[in-house]
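Support reply, case 0932

Customer input (verbatim):
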Amino acid sequence: MSRFRVGLLMFAGLLAIPEIQAGGEWQNLTSMPSPRQELATAVLNGKIYVLAGYDGDGMSTSSVFVYNPPTNTWATAASLPRTNNHNSAAVAAGRLYSFGGLSLATDVYDPVSNSWSSVASLHTTHSGTAAVGVINDKIYVAGGGATGNALEVYDPVTNTWTLLAPMAIPRNHCGGGVINGKLYVAGGRDNDQAPTALEVYDPQTNGWTTLAPMPTGRSGIGAAVVHGELYVFGGEIPFLHAEVEAYNPATNTWRQLPDMPYSRHGIWASVIGNKIYLAGGGVKQGFAATDHTDVFIVTTKVNFANISTRLKVESDDNALIGGFIITGTGTKRIILRAIGPSLSISGALANPRLELYNGTNQLIASNDNWQDAPNGQEIVDSSLAPSHNLEAAILTTVTPGNYTAVVRGENDSTGIALVEVYDLEAGSDSQLANISTRGFVQTDNDVLIGGLILTGQLPRRVITRAIGPSLTLQGALPDPTLEVRDSNGVLLASNDNWRSTQELEIIATTIPPSHDLESAIVQTLPPASYTAIVRGVNNTTGTALVEAYALQ
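Our regenerated output:
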């Protein structure tokens, strides 16, 4: 039994059933080297960069502080070319940019030389703290400045800023973030509607849409996106705020979360994984900078799907092939990983390659060695970077449809590998569903091992299938058997030929196997971890498919 328990914990194919469970917790961190407020922050190479802002005496600064989360320590980097406050920052294409605030200038930071250099200037001032987001490695900045509703985008490839459609509600001291390739802007002031206003910009249409107003009107906020939801922190006017509220775009609703430990305004939020970092801010309205630093750890388990399957990777048609379906109407940001050398087992695939195909079998992305990916910094920031540099990863945004992830060995090498898909946007109305994996089923430890994890509070009805003879390929497994086991390796159900048990139940699902020798099991399972194991009758071998569907 212990062999199956290890298979679940290390190699299970996962199906996370969506359920909204709001939550989070605060942790106090090491204080900044000195107080700051009306600052900007951004994440570069896994570290938080804090740029400029007012000091404790209300004077503008050019300082750059750098926080290292693993060591909970601060350092300094080269100062900005000029003092600034109410400024903005963003990381695009792996580079840190500083812009807005007191001038039109834009500067880019080189961590190797620890120096700043100038690039193209903004068209209009974005003082008074604007909302910022990065979409497809382009920086969008909205609000602030003389008009308060200007939107422009910076393209690092062409080194140009371009003006776009303005916001409907002029404002400054606002915050924003990107969900499903759209820029959300919340809160602000200098307009009667600004404190509660929420608008979203769609680059595809160059247009804005007004959404559900924020329950607590405020400005001088921090804003960040985790799991596809927009989190808003603190702020001021008519008094100092500690409230934390989260917006879910799938339902167009807000909810309340635990308050900040200290009421603050003039803050900026930055995200690494499920952690939102907030440094400094003003502890009174006006000038009252603090060096306080804390982190909000999002414990929401909403729609965070992770599917994965382990199998021995052979050559040609016997590569490790994982399939998944994106359902819904919106785009979905995902990360795929091909894991091999970091697996603590004998015979692991030394150098996996990863390919992603759409429903028409077109290659849409590929990677060998994740650190060579053009958006490698995004992979790091997701907190899901593989632990070995020879492993592969693809972080991309996909539309609803069918997708296939293929894992092969470099130079046709063979070995055991793991393919994984993570859903990075829980707030989207699209979901990661219907997992399946195809591979060559052998004997002993080299059988096909998949599985599912059910999250939430209620039991879930699930069908698991083992497909072989109906596959239209040579060498298909002629007679697959299927077992479902719990996290302790205890056998819960088994099937050899699906019509032999539960025939009417399986037909009622509308997705029975198409061949009588294939296997299927319908179960109502409580939230927990489970393993599905596919073997060949009498230790036969061949290519098979294991699938899991949520039925309700």
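We compared this against your earlier run and they match. Two observations from our side: The radius of gyration is 25 Å. Confidence is low (pLDDT under 50) at residues 1-22, 300-305. Please reopen the case if you see a mismatch on your end.
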